[in-house]
Structures are given as structure tokens and as C-alpha cells.
């Protein structure tokens, strides 16, 4: 009789629900590795300030139990246990936190330490965003691992929309040759594969060192003088410290100097591959508009 089928059907539905609730969650990280968890991550350690911002953007800040130094955004991250710096992790402290997911910086964390963490059975997700799309997809992938897809997907879409808006606004802007200074001693810049280069292009700028081979190449002052950029943009040692630009003021023959186009952008908004890159991008775009007005 039909009523006798109710119990088996209920049992099947319950079993199916149980399986879906504990189903394996898998994504591909920025090293093209498949990263799988038996269930959504509940204890997460982020091994770079950028990774910290990304996991918060993914809506999983409540699950973060460990960060590294300079993880200062959002404000809540400052109160999370530190496991050292991105260049030297305190392995004992990290392991004591019993994370079920470690977000590593592919080119920033010591390889011997990330290799050791994997040997010890830790699940690592490597992040290395090089462009706007990868920043957005990292938010979505991390949200998948943390079970916060709705919040993460919404944040990623908001970021993409903001980038599109800036791209449309400055699509016809006259180009401005730009030197972006990443570091002072040694003097360093970015090539055409770096995410900061994409911000420069978004604002209608032209990266004068785009063709160099290394992602973050070392250069000398003579190279900058020869390139004669119309604008120089720098971060600095701190969110309000524009001292790196002071040295360029003595080179009066530089177009950037003679036109007072020495611009500061707070480094945390432009040098971390996170949604705040949109904030840094808006600042940079405004600076390049000033440069155009001074022609």
C-alpha cells in the first residue's frame, strides 16, 4: 500500500539531507590546486594582511582565529591572535590554534614553512591576485570554503561594479605617463603584470616601466629621470607619510616635479590586492585628473 512507503521515503530524504550537510567543499586556489574541506571552515588563519582583508570581505571574519603583523583592516582584525609576520610564521602558535583552513600568500610566505604546514596535514589555500577579476574570484572562492557564499558573492559583485564604473568614467581620458614607486631603498616599481599596473591603466595612466621583466623590479633614479614621467605616485612608510616623494623635489627637470605632480596614495589602499583597491583607485584617478588639469 502507498502509506507503507512513507517511512522509507522519509529515511531516504533524511539521509540525502545529512549527506548534503556534510558534503565536501572544493575550490581551486591561485596555484591551480584543488582545495577541499569536509565542511565549511570554522577556524581560519590568514598569513598576510591582504589575506585577512579578503576573508573578511568574504563574510567570514568571525571564523578568523589567527593573523600576521600589519593585519590592521578591518578594525576587528587588530584584536585577533598574531602568529608572527608574513615572512616568518610562529609555527607552534599557528598549530596551537587548530585551524581547519590556512590562507597563504603564494609569493610572500616562506616556502619552507608552507611546505611544512602541508606536511603536518594543514589545509592551505594559496592566494596571489594579479588583477581585479582574481581579487573578486578570491572573495567568492574563500566564501565557498567558509560557507558564507551570499555575503562573499555580494561583496565580489559590488567590487566588480565599482571597477566597471571607474573604467567607463576614464575610458577616454588623455593618457598620463606614470611612475609608481613601491619602495624607496632599494628603489622599486611595478611591471605590466602587477595589479597596481591595472589600477594605473584604469585611471588612464601609462606605466612607464610596464615592459620590465620582474613583477616588482628594482631600478635606479637615472632610469626614472630618463623615463621622465608626467606623474609620480608613491605609498610610503605609513598611511600618511609622503616622505618618499620629497627626494624627487630636487629634480626640477622632471616633468612630474615641475608640474607638482608628486602624489601620495595611502599604501594599504593600493598595495594590497583586496576590495579596498577600489578606494585606492579612486584616489589615484583623482590625482591623474589633477595632472591633466596642470598641462
UniProtKB/TrEMBL annotation:
Pfam families in the record: Peripla_BP_2
Keyword terms, alphabetized: Signal
Signal sequence interval, chain numbering: 1-23
Residue intervals of the Fe/B12 periplasmic-binding domain: 43-295
Alphabetized InterPro entries for the sequence: ABC_Transporter_SBP, ABC_transptr_periplasmic_BD, Vit_B12_bind_prot
GO biological process: cellular response to iron ion
NCBIfam families given in the database record: TroA_like
Protein name as catalogued: Iron complex transport system substrate-binding protein
Organism listed in the record: Halospina denitrificans
Lineage: Bacteria, Pseudomonadati, Pseudomonadota, Gammaproteobacteria, Halospina
